Amino acid sequence: MKRLSWSTVDIDRAGRRPKIVHFGLGAFHRAHQAVYTEAAGEPWGIAAVAPRSTDVVTALREQDCFYTVTDTTTRVVGSIVEALHLGNDAARVGELLASEDVTVVTLTITEKGYRGGPVIGALASGLAGRFRRGGAPITVISCDNMTGNGRVLERAVRESVTGPGRDRVLAWLAESVAFPSTVVDRIVPATSPEHRARAAEALGLDDAVPVFAEPYRQWVLEDVFAAEIPPWDGARFVPDVTPFEQQKLRLLNGTHSALAYLGSAAGHETIAEVLESQWGERFVRGFGAEAAAALPGDHGPYVEQLVERFRNPDIRHRLSQIGSDGSLKLPERWFGTLRDAGGKPLLELALAGWARATEPDVKTGMTDPLAEELATCWRAPDDVEAVRRLLRLVGAPDDVTLPKSVARHLPALRAGRVEFLTHLITSNGAQ
Ligand code: CS2
Question: By three-state DSSP, how is residue 406 classified?
Fold first, then answer.
């Protein structure tokens, strides 16, 4: 079968050039910002930088950076015009970041990317290079699931600026570089070998890096830009993203994480599989109601929509993917509710699911940068103390009774008995 490339697709991309630098070449970027930019048309093209994997760079180059996104149909996307590797192509990345023609940087580097990873260092030195080259204004947009992601990114970049002239670079960053906060939403599981076969069947061409995504997508951006951005049709520009951010992080991502840990305890592999279980849908509604109770406004329709989205059998979103990096995800997804909500029996249950997943002898396939420290918490005299240590390690809000309320669920979860615990759902008043 022929490979996807210039000669096999019918897309005119000649007028696109790299005016956006993107860091993080995973499936999510390819199905989200790259799709919005595709619709923005010429001259908008993306130079996409992979921080670690050379495989995705090689694969994209071999197909002239074209790839497919499958939602209700399979379409070729042509907005990525250059694929780069952060280490191997450092000079080109620096050149692009200094170029006046580049007016936007976007990032999908996951929560852990903001904690001393290589991207922030490269971005900070690239921006310092831009300053020295004349300092054309630019907008730098975090597209990761964090509260105030623009502020988090700005702080991380400022802390990474070093060397002589630091003060002048910092002053320029404050004046000429905008870091809007954003809320991104689209469920896009990591691509599997099965996806490659399905894409090839749909397209009649081989695509080594296809993406499968749900039809839904959303992008809300704080309306502060320093330079020209593409006409991202369908994106929403608002003065303050907070309400969207709370809804998305606490309801969608919060429920996702809860389903990941509890579903894994019950022996499931994907979100759609959990939704098919006897407790899955009820749990989404119950957990949604619990988290929504601490937020202004009516979130009922949003939660109903989540049930539909999570149920989608075409999306095999693995629990091990969602449950990974819990030590960084939970503070964003659960701790706001923990602080703000009154009764939260389902969140306590979810915390027990997470605690169980951190036990050293439990095999979940989930990874975490704090895995060793989390495992060490279990060298405690009893479950309550272990949970107390776990919660402290990840910075949960102080609550003396919480460890006990969480630990009491552990025996049932260890026995894989999640359905038994769903009486909590009805006692919470949700159907
Ligand atoms: C998921 C998210 O993997 C995860 O942690 O919760 O990737 C989720 O699918 C997206 O944020 C949806 O917009």
Answer: helix
What would the two tokens of residue 261 be?
């840990």
Question: What's the CA gap between 3 and 76, in Å, rounded?
Answer: 12
How far lies 164's CA from each of 125, 171, 357, in Å? 12, 13, 46
182 forms beta bridges with 221
Domain with 399 in it: 243-425
The per-residue pLDDT for 430 is 46
Evaluate: CB of 185 within 6 angstroms of ligand 1.
Answer: yes
Q: Distance (Å, rounded) from C-alpha 219 to C-alpha 237? A: 9
d(CA 61, CA 413): 46
Last residue of a domain, one of 224, 240, 256: 240
Residue 226, CA distances (Å) to 139, 161, 315, 339 in order:
5, 20, 37, 35
- Whether residues 272 and 332 share a domain: the answer is yes
> Using an 8 Å Cβ cutoff, are 83 and 77 in contact?
no
Q: Which residue has the tokens 């993406």?
A: 211
- 65 torsion bin: left (phi>0), alpha (psi -120 to 50), beta (else): left
Residue 42, domain CATH: 3.40.50.720
Distance CA 68, CA 130 (A): 33
- Last residue of one domain, picked from the residues 190, 216, 240: 240
| Residue that has been written with the tokens 């439990």 in this structure | 362
Between the CA of 363 and the centroid of ligand 1 the distance, in Å, is 22
Cβ of 49 closer than 6 Å to ligand 1, yes or no, is no
Among protein residues, the one with the nearest Cα to ligand 1's atom 11 is: 185
253 lines ligand 1 (CB under 6 A): yes
Mean pLDDT, contiguous 10-residue spans, the chain (431 residues)? 93 95 98 98 98 97 98 96 98 98 98 93 98 98 98 98 95 98 97 93 96 98 98 98 98 98 97 96 96 96 98 95 98 96 92 98 96 98 98 96 97 92 64 40
210 and 63 within one domain: yes
Provide CB contacts within 8 A for 50, sequence distance 6+.
24, 25, 56, 57, 83, 84, 85, 86
Q: How far is the CA of 380 from the centre of ligand 1 (A)?
A: 32
What pLDDT score was predicted for residue 426?
62
